[in-house]
Amino acid sequence: MLYCGVTPSESAMPVQRPAPAYARIKDYVRRQIETGTWPAGSVIPSEHDLVRQFGVSRMTVHRALRELTADHVLHRVQGAGTFVNPKRYQSTLIEIRSIAAEIESRGDIHTSQVLLLERTTDVTALTALGLAATDYAYHSCMVHFENNEPIQVEDRYVNPHLYPRYLEQDFEHLTPSDYMTREAPLQRAEYVITARLPDAVIRQHLRMPAGDPCLVLQRRTWAHEQIATDVTLWHPGARFQFSGSF
């Protein structure tokens, strides 16, 4: 039976309402940035220009730009205008994932450069891994790139008793995280994040200007009730952010 020309199933369908004007402006700004029309560092149209373009109130435009600034998409300079921020690459904290998987999940290309791969008896390494003073550890250092832009320097100590073939791996085609997860899955982790100024070597590898800080993740993981790895991950603070939820 029909009621007013509408079937019961049709009447139950939700009515789609247009997005609020401020949300449409935010989407427009993001599209201009993502397509490269407004590259990083460029100034975007003024609030007055956007008011005329969209036919909305100044308050609506102000809200859209304020929220994009809070999301670190834009930054505002008093008397100069509103500028596009550099892209900030992200990493999740809740789940330990390969950086290659993180990058590829965004549709980008991961590459890496191995700087160091060695056996070491350094006291710092042995202490970090809870090994005896007469023991040894493996040490690797590498740079990870997203679309040919360096976003992480990875300095890692590894327990050789859990990962005896660590030095045999081709870490320009396989990340240490992928190899270690396959050999001995991790049980737990602890980490600390700090903002630190890099030394000249780290700064050069990350192509950072002098004076810019790094976001540094110090992480220790366990497997088979032993410390598996102790790794320090350096990221350019202006181009990287951590994210997570629980």
From TrEMBL:
Q: What Pfam families does this protein's entry cite?
A: GntR, UTRA
Show the taxonomic lineage.
Answer: Bacteria, Pseudomonadati, Pseudomonadota, Betaproteobacteria, Neisseriales
Task: Output the superkingdom of the source species.
Answer: Bacteria
Entry keywords, A to Z: DNA-binding, Transcription, Transcription regulation
Protein name (record) = Histidine utilization repressor
Q: Which PROSITE patterns match?
A: HTH_GNTR
Domain (HTH gntR-type) ranges? 19-87
Keyword DNA-binding in annotation: yes
**Which PANTHER family does its entry note?**
MANNOSYL-D-GLYCERATE TRANSPORT/METABOLISM SYSTEM REPRESSOR MNGR-RELATED, TRANSCRIPTIONAL REGULATOR PHNF-RELATED
